[in-house]
Amino acid sequence: MSTFIDRIKERASALQKHIVLPEGEDARAVRAAAACVKENIAKITLLGKEDEIRKANPDVDLTGVNIVDPAKSEKRKEYAALLYNLRKAKGMTEEEADKLSYDNTYFGVLMVKTGDADGLVSGACHSTANTLRPGLQIVKAAAGVPLVSSCFLMVAPECGNPFCEDGAFVYSDCGLNENPTSEQLAEIAIISAKTAEKIAGLSPRVAMLSFSTKGSAKHADIDKVTAAFALAKEKAPDLLIDGELQLDAAIVPSVAKSKAPGSKVAGHANVLIFPDLDAGNIGYKLTERLGGFQAVGPICQGFAKPINDLSRGCKWEDIVATVAITALQTQM
């Protein structure tokens, strides 16, 4: 694990937040729960049947991990009633709410809603929809936030990277919004800059990415990015942001001098805003697999309380890092 992530874990440890992991059936989540408690990163509740969890993970020391089976919890009926009251206007029946309260993810999100936990991390063995649907239905977006988005914290390998001067990038949106409008891209840029500052400890320099730099090509897709840049600059005039920029112009100083002379962002960007999910998802996986970066996320942005999705290809160490980030998000 990198020293960059170690610093995030240290900051999380000082907060001692309570994070729920619903996926007790996944060995990676179980090992991460034990590691979080051992390293004093956060208080952990792991959801599932305790006897099955312990039997399936005999070599994992779960001392200090709170294991809860929703089916046996005294809170379940209270949570079912809350879920019904939250969703009855959308047509949910009491029977449906009761059934969903047995589901680990719904139970975990209800813990967060009621304040019985500070945040949730899931998705190691469940789809993004399985994780985010309960979050959107129950916790919902924060006041004044028009959409929930996601980002990845891309941590440079220990040997370093010549174009990653801060030790990490924030990539957004690589996991949620498929084809954001200019207005949505602007919001994604602004909230991703906040994530970079508050979670990663970076001084954000935001690049709105495209296949064009400063009008080098003409296309409707480029127009969307340039409009997003203008909107973001209008809404956050103090934000250090530029666009449209090609990837090399955004992070390579020598290319920036040629393609975007005079830009305060070009050549030094650390927050990269991709124009759509295709580009973002491909971009982060290329950086991870070919560049040797650690991809932490997707980190969800915009929920009223922190709920984070995981890549199903994640390692247990990634879950630990996401727990630490989730704890820090409680301060946003």
As a whole number of angstroms, the C-alpha radius of gyration is 20 Å
Q: What's the CATH topology name of the largest domain?
A: Rossmann fold
Largest sheet: 6 strands, mixed
Structural classification: alpha/beta
Strand content: 15-25%
Helical residues, percent: 40-55%
Task: Compute the separation of the termini in Å.
Answer: 25 Å
Number of domains: 2
Number of strands: 11
Q: pLDDT below 50 for ≥5 consecutive residues: which ranges? A: none
Total of DSSP H or I helical runs spanning 4+ residues = 13
Largest sheet, order of strands side by side? 8-7-9-6-5-10
- What is the name of the CATH class of the largest domain? Alpha Beta
Shape estimate: globular
CATH architecture of the largest domain: 3-Layer(aba) Sandwich
Q: Could you report the average pLDDT, rounded to the nearest whole number?
A: 92
What does this structure look like?
With about 325 residues, the protein is α/β, with parallel strands linked by helices. The protein folds into two domains: about 5-140 and about 310-330, Rossmann fold; about 150-290, Isocitrate/Isopropylmalate dehydrogenase-like (Rossmann fold, 3-Layer(aba) Sandwich), CATH 3.40.50. It contains 13 helices and eleven strands. It has helices at about 5-15, 25-40, 50-55, 75-85, 95-100, 105-115, 130-140, 180-200, 220-235, 245-250, 255-260, 275-290, 315-330; strands at about 20, 45, 65-70, 120, 150-155, 170, 205-210, 240-245, 270-275, 295-300, 305-310. The strands form two sheets. Strands 8-7-9-6-5-10 form a six-stranded mixed β-sheet, with helices on both faces. Strands 3-2-1-4-11 form a five-stranded parallel β-sheet, sandwiched between helices. It is globular, with a radius of gyration of 20 Å. The two termini are about 25 Å apart. The model has no long low-confidence stretch (mean pLDDT about 90).
